[in-house]
């Protein structure tokens, strides 16, 4: 009978040295594989941990930089606010300074006005050569004070930015002719030639401001020229116009050319009267030209002369028809003049001066005085000379309005004031009055009166 065969595990390999070595080698391979696996695992975990640490570190740095930037932005905002406040404070101070100078100039120019009017009358009363020389010396001193006050006011207004140019077409030949007529006596007194070469050009500018620029340039040229002459030339340059004021004076050294437009810089050059100028003329010229947007350039050769050039645009259209002035009369004999002046010394000087010209003068301090005189039979005047600023805030033009409304008197008016404000000029123009700034120049007043009476 066959018995089933039973499966039995193979007999264990005899524990020989070789078999043991094989088992050791196998275990070593397994151990090496396990160690490699553990190392790879550890490397992966270590990299993630390093990235985690790096992220934390970067986050801290970003937070710190953000805080620094935020603090810096807040500091900049505070600085900007402080700068804006300082700017506004400076602008307010500048405007206050301008208002103060304008108000102070009225009080300063009032006595100057009275002194010049009285001096003119005194010169007529004492015609001797010695008295005329003394009077001329006093007048020069008054002119210097007047020029300084006006220059400081002009600079203050230009710096404050309250000068608003009224740009319109201006016929250049008329403006240059007026400047030539004004300065020719000064040039002839120094035996200098004053020549103009001006084409019939119309420029786009503010006529009043351009006139001031050229007056300063021509005045400087004549002052610092001892022989030869001064040339005012205007010519077309494409769509622009260039105005040159050329002199044959002492010239300006190269090291001073960058300084001549600074305030009170005079370079030590003597003027025609043995003294030096105020050093404000070219400073005003530069500021005014900048306000108008006109370029100004200087060219000079020491010992040969100087050329100052102003470039401005030509106008697209021509101005209104040319106005031809009638010849001026010189006699004021018998003319009835009504004067309104609240300053006692100025009123007395004005009355004395007008009477020295053989005019019939009546002076009042305010509207109430005029109304009282009307009740006493005041006759209609031929011309009125009225101060703008009266006592207690009253305005001289109120007298004009009253006489026109109550009496129907449309009488020529000369409005006098030490205030150069644009609003006063506008009111004078609206009233039809001729505006004369104080201190009043007697010759100017006499010519204007003669023209208005003619």
From TrEMBL:
Where does the chain cross the membrane? none
Q: Where is the Response regulatory domain?
A: 336-453
Q: Which domain of life is it from?
A: Bacteria
Protein's UniProt keywords contain Transmembrane helix: no
The alphabetical list of record keywords is: Coiled coil, Kinase, Phosphoprotein, Transferase
Molecular functions per Gene Ontology: histidine phosphotransfer kinase activity; phosphorelay sensor kinase activity
Q: Which EC number(s) does the record attach to this protein? A: 2.7.13.3
Q: Name one GO cellular component term.
A: plasma membrane
Question: What Pfam families does this protein's entry cite?
Answer: HATPase_c, HisKA, Response_reg
Q: Which InterPro entries match?
A: CheY-like_superfamily, HATPase_C_sf, HATPase_dom, His_kinase_dom, HisK_dim/P_dom, HisK_dim/P_sf, Sig_transdc_His_kin-like_C, Sig_transdc_resp-reg_receiver
Coiled-coil segments on the chain, per record: 69-96
Which reactions are catalysed by this chain? ATP + protein L-histidine = ADP + protein N-phospho-L-histidine
Query: Where are the 4-aspartylphosphate modifications?
Result: 387
Give residue ranges for domain Histidine kinase: 103-316
Q: What is this protein called?
A: histidine kinase
């Amino acid at each position: 009978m066959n018995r089933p065969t039973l499966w039995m595990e193979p007999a264990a390999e005899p524990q020989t040295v070789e078999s043991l070595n094989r088992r050791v080698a196998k275990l070593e391979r397994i151990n090496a594989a396990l160690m490699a696996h553990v190392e790879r695992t550890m490397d992966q975990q270590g990299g993630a941990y390093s990235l985690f640490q790096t992220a934390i570190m970067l986050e801290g740095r970003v937070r710190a930089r953000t805080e620094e930037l935020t603090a810096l932005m807040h500091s900049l905002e505070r600085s900007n606010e402080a700068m804006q406040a300082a700017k506004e404070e400076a602008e307010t101070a500048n405007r206050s300074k301008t208002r103060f100078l304008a108000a102070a100039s009225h009080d300063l120019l009032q006595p100057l006005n009275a002194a010049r009017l009285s001096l003119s009358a005194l010169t007529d009363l004492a015609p001797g050569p010695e008295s005329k020389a003394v009077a001329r010396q006093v007048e020069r001193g008054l002119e210097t004070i007047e020029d300084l006050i006006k220059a400081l006011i002009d600079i203050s207004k230009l710096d404050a930015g309250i000068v608003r140019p009224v740009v319109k077409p201006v016929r250049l030949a008329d403006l240059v002719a007026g400047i030539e007529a004004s300065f020719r006596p000064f040039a002839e007194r120094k035996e200098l030639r004053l020549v103009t070469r001006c084409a019939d050009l119309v420029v786009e500018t503010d006529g009043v401001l351009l006139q001031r620029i050229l007056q300063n340039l021509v005045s400087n040229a004549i002052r610092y020229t001892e022989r030869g002459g001064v040339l005012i030339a205007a010519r077309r340059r494409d769509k622009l116009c260039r105005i040159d004021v050329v002199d044959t004076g002492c010239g300006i050294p190269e090291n001073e050319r960058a300084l001549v437009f600074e305030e009170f810089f005079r370079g030590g050059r003597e003027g025609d009267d043995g003294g030096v100028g105020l050093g404000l003329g070219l400073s005003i010229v530069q500021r005014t030209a900048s306000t108008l947007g006109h370029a100004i350039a200087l060219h000079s050769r020491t010992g040969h002369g100087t050329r100052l050039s102003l470039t401005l645009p030509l106008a697209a259209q021509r101005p209104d028809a040319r106005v031809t002035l009638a010849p001026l009369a010189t006699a004021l004999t018998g003319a009835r003049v009504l004067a309104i002046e609240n300053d006692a010394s100025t009123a007395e000087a004005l009355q004395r001066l007008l009477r020295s010209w053989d005019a019939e003068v009546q002076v009042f301090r305010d509207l109430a005085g005029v109304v009282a005189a009307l009740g006493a039979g005041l006759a209609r005047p031929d011309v009125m000379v009225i101060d703008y600023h009266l006592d207690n805030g009253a305005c001289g033009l109120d007298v004009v309005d009253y006489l026109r409304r109550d009496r129907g008197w449309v009488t020529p008016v000369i409005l006098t004031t030490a205030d150069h404000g644009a609003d006063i000029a506008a009111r004078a123009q609206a009233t039809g009055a001729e505006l004369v700034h104080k201190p009043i120049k007697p010759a100017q007043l006499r010519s204007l009166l003669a023209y208005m009476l003619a």
